[in-house]
Fold these 3 entries.
Entry 1:
Amino acid sequence: MSFARKQLPDAHTATLGVVGHPVGHSLSPLLQNTLLRKLSLNACYHAFDVEPARFRDAIRGAASLGFLGLNVTVPHKQRAAELCDLLSDEARLLRAANTLVFRPDGSIFGANTDPFGFRRALQEFRPDLRDFNALVLGAGGAARSVVLALSQLGSRNVWIANRTRSRAQALVQELGPALGEATALHDLPLDSSNVQRAVDASQLVVNATSVGMAPDVDATPLPPGVRLNPAMAVVDLIYNPLETRFLREAKEAGCEIDNGLNMLIFQAVASLEIWFETEVNLEPNFLTELRTLLTGALSSE
Ligand code: NAP
């Protein structure tokens, strides 16, 4: 099929979108439609707010209507993986899919582009990181993607600290054996002394919790009194606000910081690559344009 773009949607325009609940603040339609236009692809990307009880019907309906594919976001990523006929290795390992492809034979393929998004963003931010140790705060879906990506990037030790420790323990038990011996995963209590020890042994700290996200911008995921080392790199997956309290304090401590915007962009690009079976290389100038566009959209909210 040809995806050469026309000026306006026509009978050949492919339908794409994101399904979430809520989805009203999603940046994905702006981001994906900008990418589609830049790449001259004849497709249109929409946002669909679907309650969990209607998710299965919505996916079946999208398949019946001949949608090319969908992104799936909170709270549907695990259910999406369950509905797929075939999963990518990463989606199977994470038991969550954020990218669905509706195939001509009626089957649904599911992939998870979050690990790729984080990997590419980290390579952009700190291409020099080798043989490193990392501390991940959080043990939800995003943390699992981050841990997988860190292992793929060659991290030696990853400490996982989460408010609900049993979730961190489950993450270690489920992902640990699949990652092989190169990366050792350790869960630890989210308290000042344990987290400080992990910080002191790490070159990278990642906030993969939702703590600090708007509107609770005064919250930080770090336990009280934990001091960051100025030589370390600090990433927050949150991009609203662009600079969380966690990132601001890390910057004040002398650390290099990065927010979640690049991960958002690169996971979106990876979804496009899957839907259109093509390789997309973002020129540095265009990446900067995308960041500016998204930053503008966030500040006008
Ligand atoms: P999730 O599965 O719901 O996990 C939420 C995590 O935050 C859990 O570890 C949870 O701990 C922790 N948490 C929530 N409230 C807390 C509190 N008051 N104190 C301590 N910990 C708390 O969500 P997710 O999908 O992993 O997303 C996590 C964050 O990553 C969100 O901010 C999301 O926007 C961001 N994200 C960004 C990107 C990107 O492209 N930049 C991609 C995916 C996600 P418990 O287990 O104890 O509840």
Note: Residues 25 and 151 are 31 Å apart (CA to CA).
Entry 2:
Amino acid sequence: MALLTLEGFSDEPLQDALELLTAAGFSADVEPAREIYVNRDLRMNAISWVGFDMDYTLALYHQDELDALSVRHTVDTLIEHFGYPEAIRAIKPEPDFAIRGVVVDRKLGNILKLDSHYYVGRAYHGFQPVARELKKAYQDERIRLSLDRYVLVDTLFALPEAFLYAAIIDHLERDGDGAALDYMQLYDHIRAAIDLAHADGRIKRDVLGDIPRYVRRDPELAQTLHKLRSAGKHLFLLTNSEWYYTSELMSYMLDGALSSYPTWRNYFDVVITTAKKPWFFRGDDPFLLLDELGRPLREEQNGFIRGHVYEGGNLNDFQRKLGLRGSEVLYVGDHIYGDMIRSKRDSAWRTCMVIQEMEGELQKRDTMRAELNAWYALDHELAALNSDLSAHRRVLERLDAAYGLGTLDTALGQKVERARRDLKRHLDLLGKRRRTALGRLIDLDLEIAANFNPFWGFLFKEGAEHSFFGGQVEDYACIYTSRVSNLRQYSPLRYFRARTQHMPHEL
Ligand code: 5GP
Ligand code: MG
């Protein structure tokens, strides 16, 4: 465990406790893949209600299986309804290709990864990197995601559509069938086909037909919810999924896990299905009380009845019925737009984002420790070189200014002239060393990034910046982690503290 040693402060009690922990077979640190990371201070003791999204939050999916299922149904619809050639059935999965945060350019048929300043870092057409000169076209104008030319892939449900878009372009253009390919229309067909497979229940029917194949049952989930309840928190479920699907998945994940909770319903004070997030946060749909078969009985004007299930609803009524202030609610979700952005912008709810990809990303960091350490050392060297270079330049500029006045006597003028020459020579040397270090850093960066994802590199980074996705997580998630059950490793009264941030002028 890394500790700062404070002068005059004994760390003996801590060291003793650590020894005890080790002797008892426990690790002193939470492993990085299971940690909770903090963007904004969050006092858990000020939170009285904790809400959960279901899909990809409480219910984590086996991504490859669910992707394959979505792709299969989408390809069927593309062939049967939109007349695409049978040959597209031969498309093979490429699990690394689609990641969250990439942007589809429907006009040019490209997929882009942006940094948090909207600069295009990487771009693919089909599975081929977009040539450097074509990529330059993106630098002449700011990427405005509000244009309907662009679509942001911001949920794990949408990965298959980014993959299929690239795969079909790749397939048709490689076979020479792509001459008349209308990129806009292709995207719209794929979107419509995937939407249909969700809306008509085909995907859900298949998932329910073999839940263990598609859903990861987290053995620590029940204990996690219990721990929150034991600390006096109320829990609610707020999902866009319909009641029939929600009840089966939640039963699979929680029923029978703890003897004090006969069914999953016992963990939650309020259950809301078909919530229509993000509309839930700004709309005024009523809450409908459902019967046991999920049929609407009536509008619920008053409070919620514990043990009953609701559909629809809206933020204002939710808070009014429960007599809540927004800042007492922590909402745990996975969708950057539907769960994080809207709840942050339209309410005072605090947010916890579940990013299941983090587990793999952080485990890879662990296996690449040596390369990452070399990277940090080079980065450190570059920072020192940059600082040295700017100190030399600053003094040179001051000397130039003094020399330029023409007021120095001859002897001093000669000395200044010599000092300027020496400084310039030194600047050249520093510049060379910087170029070498930078070259090594770029090579190492590419090598490391390729190990994370050969197409896109890091999920949270693009070049030296946050990726667009990383930037959004930073902006909208108060805390973030790889799965809900990671909360179990922390006190339910924990004060999650963010690191103090500095602007360049403050350092
Ligand atoms: P949540 O994450 O709020 O629990 O719910 C996600 C729900 O949205 C799931 O029921 C999922 O099937 C549904 N969903 C995800 N993507 C699409 C889509 O493209 N179209 C439709 N109609 N539903 C979707
Ligand atoms: Mg979700």
Note: The two ends are 27 Å apart (CA to CA).
Entry 3:
Amino acid sequence: MWPFTSSSALKKSSAPVFFTNTLSGKKEVFVPIAPGFATMYSCGPTVYSEAHIGNMRTYVMADGIARVLKSAGYRVRRVLNITDVGHLVNDGDTGEDKMEIGSKAEGIRASDIAHKYAARAIADMELLGMDTKDMLFPFATHYIQEQIAFIEALEKKGFTYRIKDGVYFNTSKFAGYGKLGRGKEQRIIEGSAETLAARIPQSFARIEKNDQKIHEADFALWKFSPLGIVRQQEWPSPWGRGFPGWHIECSAMSKALLGKEIDIHTGGIDLISIHHNNEIAQSEGVFGKAFVRYWMHSAFLNIGEDKISKSLGNSVTVSEVIARGYSPLTIRYFFLQAHYRSPLSFTWESMHASSEALTRLWRLAKEIKEESKEIPANSEIRDRVITHLRDDLGTPQALALLWETVRDEDLSPKVKWGVILAVDEVFGLSLSNPPSTRGALTPEDLPEAIAHLAREREAARTNKDFARSDELRIHIENSGYAVEDSAGGQLIRRVR
Ligand code: AMP
Ligand code: ZN
């Protein structure tokens, strides 16, 4: 049986929530397929190397959407897929499979690479306070038969053709192909329809030319293993040995796990023009009805002028942030300061500022928790916070109100506690159970030798190397410091 998330949610009736739908480009009230329930599918990591904090921004957005729905009384059913085959280097139909590249780089099998990086990505999501316990994380390679059956159904309906390197989707057979927009990501970022028009050719320019394709936008559903080459990941199919194209996994797995039609589908804006348009063509082609009600996309996390990306080599990972002595929840705080549809620039200075702000917030929340005796009161501010959060996840507005509230000396602790609880239901920053940071030293305040040991210990904890972590704790303690592991990471205090 599906592990539905919150049983208490059943007792509440669901309240109105608004989301910006990429399909219409407008903010819409959320009307689910089944009253009180929401199904969500999120495009997840391609697990050939470590996920970066740009990927995490998209997952934190999806977590926020699920949390806001739960707080509004919905039961939420979530899938986040793990791509472990078929995603080729240029996001198109040619080039090497990213998994094979990862496997060669590390000298271990593609399936081992997949398990290693999927486990790390999920661990990172949990470190960032994501509620993963009721989510499903299906691997594309576990759904090969479903993908083959999906392609067969498309074939029966006349959407496919076969050329020398694979079976392709004929986009001219699907009326309305590209309805999600081609390059809408640019419109979201720059707010200009002219820029959009100028960008359309570039969206497709990324795809290498395949002379046998009927239309440039056609895409591979099943690729044949190249003659004379045995791939690590290949399967028999009605069309010959090979592997699925990148897009079919999402259509097949969302159908298998959530049904033919789903409420919400999420991803980063880079997925709009090709991957999500192709998912729509596949799913609506087979089932002949709307695939997704609300398409939601997160803007990029950038570094300087560029998006954070594995291929640009400018990745920052959760482990790197932790290794510098910051709580992983600092990353979440940093994300929540911006609206999910606005681009956000990462700098280490911004990480430092977020860390100081979050530490201060935890300190205040702890005091308010004690003063209020954990009795929350309803208030007009609490209602306003909830309204902001239900209005397309207005996290910057909710955060501003939270700061105003905790600093206001005229408000009662119970009112403040009520606001903290309402915010944290969606923020997931451990504000209702704040780690005790009293007396804890920031990485900058620690002597370098201790800060170094602390970084090594955080890295050991992230890698679940608890023996090493205990060894490092003893070293730190022998130097006159106490170590406490909290929801926000390790806290270090001077004891002598
Ligand atoms: P990938 O592992 O490349 O398949 O990407 C996984 C998810 O992360 C997708 O939803 C991407 O759209 C998203 N993503 C990739 N880079 C960024 C970035 N710099 N900022 C925000 N989201 C991103
Ligand atoms: Zn997908």
Note: The CA atoms of residues 147 and 489 lie 41 Å apart.
